[in-house]
Amino acid sequence: MTRRTVKIRSFHSPIPDNAGEQSGRELVATDRESSIIHFTSAGNLEEGPVSFREFTKPLVNKFNPKIPPSSIDFDFEGLSYTVYVEVNKQRDMSIYLKKGTKKQLLCAYPKVGDALAWLQWVADIDRDNLPDLMVSGSGHYSHLDHRFYLSTFAETGELAKEVGRFTDGQ
After folding, report:
1. Contact 128, 120 (CB under 8 A)
2. Domain around 113
3. Choice among 12-16, 27-31, 128-132, 164-168 with the minimum mean pLDDT
4. Domain boundary at 13, 34, 50, which?
5. What is the band of 68 on the pLDDT scale with cuts at 50, 70, 90?
6. Does residue 118 share a domain with residue 91?
7. Is a pLDDT exceeding 60 seen at residue 63?
8. Where does residue 138 rank: exposed (0-12), middle (13-18), buried (19+ CB within 10 A)?
9. Do 13 and 95 fall into the same domain?
10. DSSP per residue over 4-25, as a string?
11. Is 134 within 8 Å of 117 (Cβ atoms)?
12. Number of domains in the chain
């Protein structure tokens, strides 16, 4: 796990939000000027420092089949969480977030050929003292999904809600 100093700052967005305003927020690392993610409908995201942790260990890497699916445990505001991967006999891959006995399916990839999954980072972007996260996964080497989850949008029974997704590759 790597700790990095990040902050949310305002920026002028060419895309108007639901209120018709062309302002947004971006999550930036203080050791570089490029943004990590842009928010065009910023809601109540406030400028300032953000608690942020990066992870470098893959959850699953079937490019190297000798490494089995794994999990990553992390503490956030005194509570323990786990992100883990399951791959069944049909080669369906599922990525889960767990806190205590509460378990949530984050995303699933059917019939994976070349499974790859990462917990990219955990942060408290919305400052509700609950983890927000970026998870990346793929069932094929030619593309990678990056999914962004915020805790404030979680519905009953959920720990976080997918609020954005970017796919690179084909």
Report:
1. no
2. 55-169
3. 12-16
4. 50
5. low
6. yes
7. no
8. buried
9. no
10. --EEEEEEE-SS--TTS--EEE
11. no
12. 2
